[in-house]
Amino acid sequence: MSFTAQLENVSKLYGTFAALRKVSLTLETGRCYVLLGENGAGKSTLLRVLAGLLRPTYGTITVLGTSPQEARERIGYMSHAPMLYDEYTGVENLRYFANLYRTQTCLAPETTLSSVGLDPALKRPVGQYSQGMRQRASLARVLLSQPELLLLDEPFSNMDIVSAHQMLDLLAAIKAENRTIVLTTHQRDLAEPIADSLITLTAGSVSATIEKTVRA
């Protein structure tokens, strides 16, 4: 059994407010973890800590055998904001981001866009995309570098049911490549088929964990 990430008593404070409270988790390689909880429960904060964008106030965290900051190029993070340049086409965006990776072997932008159901020949700038298309393009940006750990914040938002199921199929294929996925969602029924573990956060703490599959 190998581990992608381990958190031990991780807390994140903003003044006297605790966004995370003594969270301890072990994320096994090749599994999908679905984070559930109300708005403000700490789901997005936990993703940002795993991504190395926030440092915990207390506790320790290891990602891919090192600190999240050191492992950043091996992590793919999809936030609520698309993190794309509105004036560029999808292909132009992905070409730009591919040039930022120094140690990772990136997929071809055209291949990556096709994998999420977008036409790489589309000349329309991203700023003119529908919300669902922007969500797909944002996922393509994450997949470009073939990350070992995918952190996806509400990946199914603004998607119709057909597109959401297409994304689920894609994520299932990625998991089958022994990569680890952590995603947040308010659509439990949609995400449950791909989940190996359902983790509920309440007021920054892990309040429930349901293991759907057990690794042999």
Account of the protein in words:
With 216 residues, this protein is an alpha/beta fold. The protein has one domain (3-211): P-loop containing nucleotide triphosphate hydrolases (Rossmann fold). 26% of the residues lie in helices and 29% in strands. It is built from six helices and nine strands. It has helices at residues 43-50, 90-98, 109-115, 131-143, 161-176, 188-191, and strands spanning 3-14, 17-28, 32-36, 58-63, 75-78, 149-153, 180-184, 197-202, 205-211. It has a six-stranded mixed β-sheet, with helices on both faces. A three-stranded antiparallel β-sheet has the order 2-1-4, covered by helices on one side. It is globular, with a radius of gyration of 17 Å. The mean pLDDT is 91.
